[in-house]
Amino acid sequence: MTAEAIAPAITVEPAPPATSRLTARIKATAGAGQMVESVSTSVFSTFLFFYYTALLGLPGSYVGAATAISLAIDAIADPLLGSLSDNARSKWGRRVPFMLVGAPLVALGLGLLFSPPNGLTGVGLFAWLVTVSLLMRFAVSTFHVPFLALGAELSEDYAERSSVVAYRTLFSIFGPLGILILGYGVFLGGKLGLKNVAGYAPLGWSAAAIILVGGLIAVLGVRRFAGGLEVAERDDSALHERLLDELREIFKNPSFRVMFSCSVLFYAAQGLASSLSQYMFMFIWRIGSQQILLITLAVFAGLIVGVPIAPILARRLEKKLLVILGLAMFCVAQGGLSSLRAVGLFMLSGDAVVLPLAINSFLAGVGLTFTGIAIGSMMADAADEHDYLFGTRREGLYFAGLGFAGKAATGIGALLAGVALDAIHFPKMAAAQGAAAHLTPETLTNLVWATGPTAAGVSLVATCILFFYRIDARRHAEISEALRARKATKS
Predict the structure, then answer these.
(1) Can you give the pTM of this predicted structure?
(2) Taking all residues of the chain, what is their mean pLDDT, rounded to a whole number?
(3) Residue 191 burial class via C-beta count within 10 angstroms: exposed 0-12, middle 13-18, buried 19 and up
């Protein structure tokens, strides 16, 4: 795409009153920033574990531990960055300066992750993985926590927030879709497929370029608009003192506790499943890069189909019910075929398994779209409830808390994947060894159980927790009216 084609999309305009509807231009340019997190996470979770274990030879527990360490420390940084951005002030608002610093660092870190120095092995390679992962993940938090908080601030309208998240979701679809097409179709698309060690570095740097463009579009597109948004009174107390008080405060809100608990379980399940997904494709379903690409495209087709449907359903269903519906669809897709495989009832592989997996992936994509659009809007509503209950705005800390849950839990899931891989005695560098790798039927069955049924079961428990979420349209209307009355009294 040319610079002329991008330029109209990043034209800015003055901030409208909070009660007016946002233009599509503002929502689209703001949404482009989602590519920073979605592209980096997609490449990180899809390819990194397989690259370092099956091709570079690090034990699965080492790679899982490195991922867990980086995500756990990054997760701890989320509340810090949430509090910092809540209290920051600049001519571009309180969020944009963090986004401007974060995006280039995410791009640099991701490129370096897939470009380890030649000759590094063992402890040296582990140290490289941990160090660069920490850089990249901290940079993701620096950009993404303020970015999500800004999205919650763009509109106070209950339904409009779902539209804002829908635009963000579009970029969370097309950004990863582009890089996965490049991955499976170009860099890892030859005869060697996933075994092409030389293809991972250009894949990483291509993802870095997409991240940088998306981040800069968002920064340039919303900087003046963000500078005109109303902000709460600044808290000038010491950071370590106020952060502990703020954390205790947000956990007093039952709505936040429900969403936090759901996120911990769901992301732990996805950390486990995504880390082992390439092993499932290669050793269980026995398909190559081109077939994996078709199945991946089916996921994105489901996501695309779900995007226009989700806001419509959000106007007819409560957001909680929409999330539960989406997660239920996802759980069936995640655990269905693999559970049948584990008990010997679905034994297709190769070309014959592509269509069933593609249909399964399409349903998972639709479910994820329902979930993603509604959950972001629900968190913004919970932040309003927090203001109503405690008299303070904590959007940054709320989304940081959700990020903390997701990252810490994903790290735990990746660690469990690595431990599981070693526990079932899966051969190191199995992809590089090819036919020489000794894989017993018991080892393969254990791999299936560890990946699909286990992850789906944990995701189902996470879904059930959402029944305790208490904010519906009526409750939010009452909260909004009370907040407006409070604001009018103060003025």
Answers:
(1) 0.79
(2) 85
(3) exposed
